[in-house]
Amino acid sequence: MTIDFWRGLVLVIIFVNHIPGNLIEHITPRNFGFSDSTEAFIFISGLSVALVYGPKLPQGDLFGVVKRCLKRAFELYRVHLALTAGAIVLFSIGYELSEEIGLIEEHGRNAVFGDTAKGITGIILLGHQLGYFNILPLYVTLMLWAPVALILARIHAGLALLVSGGVYALARMGVLTLHSWPEPGTWFFNPFAWQFLFTLGILTGLLMLERPVPYKRGLAIASLAFIVFSALAVTAGFGLMPALPEFAGTKFDLVKHDLGLARVLHFLALAYLLAQFHIGDAFKRTPIGPDLIRLGQNALTIFAAGSLLSAAGQVIMTLATVKSSASPQLIGMVFTILGIIGLVALARYLEWNKQKVPARQKEQAKGLDLSASPGRLSS
Predict the structure, then answer these.
(1) What letters, b where the CB count within 10 A reaches 16 and e where it falls short, cover 282-297?
(2) 22-28-34 Cα angle (round to 5)
(3) Mean pLDDT of the 349-359 span
(4) What's the mean pLDDT in 17-31?
């Protein structure tokens, strides 16, 4: 339940951040620390993989685990293609209504609208990814890596950490990366680097299956100190130390493409404190807690709906700029709030539908029992 709560909160934050320019994005975590919702999304994904598939390996169900991971990867791939197609349609409509060239040129969309054949082929091969639609390709590759990480961790946690760390080091040196096509460059998220955080999530999940993560006072103090410094660096000391962001950017490894170490350390410090002080347990009992849990329990559907809504939000904000005198930031904020309400309503419907199906199955089972009893039917 607590994992579902955090997953649901992360999905809301991703949705808000994927509508650039709306006022609410200024209060999301990326404005107050080195890491952001992406690190949380990937770590929680690894954690979930461990909790779901980890217990199956000791039972000798290795083939079943590999099969399920591959099936999940293919499902994510299909959803990614569907979302990208939906986004292309939305941006096409937006361009026809506004004639704003940025809608078909920015964030990698020019590859599709400029040379459709190559652009679509690149999308199918995952060689080309639209901006704000590049998390699922990363997740696809991580699900292919998941069985390897689970098997290594089953042998020894230290071995899994060593292999994952080695792959991460090679990625940071530029040896391991995935190149883009048809446009030059590389994937926005280098999966060879991001697998490191995913693997840390798996190892944490396997540890949680055995015992709680232990509390260490020194580690807690160091984590809090780093989080405070990170907040000061990102906010320029809340406006009092203008030179601090440049200093942090120079001295700390903050790159996102290859998962800078400072980002990893910041997220792990934050996650450690949140877990040790049971912040999730407290917040999930608030009025918004149950809805965030529902969002997390239906993560893929909510992520897909949120992605399309975010694309629609970008189009609407562009139309507000071109066609009216309304503030696009204000329009974006209103749309974002309505979008969150819509996602919550969708999650409630999905949960209601899940509860309705077993009831229907029970009724059908009763019907089968009756039909199997000629005496009762004849009476």
Answers:
(1) ebbeeeebbbbbbbbb
(2) 125
(3) 84
(4) 93
| Phi, psi (deg, nearest 5) at residue 46 | -65, -40
Backbone torsions φ then ψ of 186, nearest 5 degrees: -130, 170
Closest by CA position to 52, among listed 72, 34, 79: 72
Q: Are 139 and 10 in contact (CB under 8 A)?
A: no
CB atoms within 10 A of CB 48: 18
Q: Which of 109, 105, 132, 130 is nearest to 25 (CA)?
A: 132
What are 299-316's pLDDT values in tens digits? Answer: 999 999 999 999 999 999
Cβ density class 86-121: b for 16+ within 10 Å, e for less: bbbebbbebbeebebeebbeebbbebbbeeeebbbe
Nearest-5° Cα angle at 208, 206 to 219: 110
Nearest to 260 by CA among 219, 236, 230: 230
DSSP 38-85: HHHHHHHHHHHHHHHHGGGTTTT-HHHHHHHHHHHHHHHHHHHHHHHH
